[in-house]
Design goal:
- It holds the Pfam family Fer2.
- There is one protein chain.
- By secondary structure, the chain is an alpha/beta fold.
- The protein contains eight helices and 19 strands.
Length: about 350
């Protein structure tokens, strides 16, 4: 797919000793194409040591800023995150996919919003928070932000600036797992943290929406606690930046081959695959340029519609029951279960 464009890096800003913010220079003729909604992400494609890497990073700048900025935290054992922190500089070019993603803020007025973020999960929340506060002078935003220490807190200075700008409409509760800091909670974001926010610190506020971004365990605990407190699931929006790797038991159960038809960019491809393989892996082996990024069921880049046959997903944290009924699948998580399937990447 031709959704990538080579963009120059306009600035590299050091956020923490282990995190940087990359801001891209968008040519005038691409500004409309790269317009985005608060909470969306972009996929970066770059060759490191001769190997093509694709990584999805949430946009931290608000749409109103006219900037396209992402935050990248260096991950232990990582490849692209290490390269970005240690090698990238202003003037370098990277292939950048057009913005996408469903973890977005939808404006209605007025609103009280709460967000729970951990580590680099703050990146989409930065965009959402500023958009909420800009959208209506009566809007309120509460941020609960977990990190190891103040030194490792991404966008710390920017968050303090938002506090100064919006005063009593923006509140932040820091949570540190390795530092005892005045006015901050010690530990991790868990059930007690959520209850403290809902039942104590902001007990007189009825929130209209909750945005969660972080590791899977945190998302599950916060979601469960919110629902236990009577929060409607429709008000809870989340995005994982990591997902627990699980054994693919489905692959072990499947036998036989499947005839696959792929529709992409108005072209049709056909091949045969083993049911033990996942659809996206098989498609990429055929040198078909299907859209993808994380390959772990965390982003939504590889969504397609199944128009013939059946497939079963190993896991799904993104698609709704209604979308599944309409035939949508995450191809990176899907095994074919019938002798023929047709996968349409265009009908999304």
């Amino acid at each position: 797919m031709s959704d990538f464009h080579a963009l120059k890096i306009a600035a590299v800003d050091r956020l923490t000793p282990n995190a940087v913010a990359l801001t891209f220079d968008i040519p005038e003729n691409l500004k409309e194409a790269y317009s985005f909604k608060a909470g969306q992400y972009i996929t970066l494609k770059h060759k490191v040591d001769g190997k093509e890497l694709r990584r999805a990073y949430s946009i931290s700048s608000p749409p109103s800023s006219g900037k396209l900025t992402v935050g990248i935290k260096k991950m232990e054992g990582g490849t692209f995150s290490v390269y970005a922190n240690e090698n990238l500089k202003a003037g370098d070019s990277i292939e950048v996919m057009l913005p996408e993603g469903r973890f977005v803020f939808k404006a209605t007025s007025p609103q009280k919003i709460a967000a729970f973020a951990a580590g680099s999960g703050i990146t989409p929340i930065m965009s959402i928070a500023q958009t909420v506060l800009e959208n209506n002078p009566e809007n309120m935003f509460v941020l609960v932000f977990g990190n190891q220490s103040p030194e490792e807190t991404m966008y710390f200075k920017e968050i303090q600036s938002i506090k100064e700008k919006y005063g009593e409409r923006f509140f932040v509760q820091y949570v540190y797992s390795r530092s005892n800091v005045e006015d901050a909670l010690f530990g991790r974001i868990e059930r007690s943290t959520v209850n403290f926010v809902l039942k104590n610190k902001f007990k007189d506020n009825a929130f209209d929406g909750f945005y969660l971004c972080g590791p899977e365990e945190m998302i599950e605990q916060v979601t469960e606690t919110l629902t236990d407190n009577g929060v409607d699931k429709e008000k809870i929006h989340f995005e994982l930046f990591t997902s627990d790797d699980s054994d693919d038991e489905l692959a072990e159960e499947l036998e036989g081959m499947t005839q696959v038809t792929v529709i992409l960019d108005d072209e049709t491809y056909s091949f045969v695959m083993d049911k033990k393989e996942r659809v996206l892996d098989a498609v990429l082996k055929q040198d078909i340029d299907a859209p993808y990024s994380c390959q772990g069921g965390v982003c939504s880049s590889c969504i397609a519609r199944l128009t013939e046959g059946k497939a079963e997903m190993v896991k799904n944290q993104i698609l709704t029951d209604g979308e599944i009924e309409e035939g949508f699948v995450l191809t990176c998580q899907s095994h074919p279960t019938t002798s023929k399937i047709t996968v349409d990447y265009d009908d999304v």
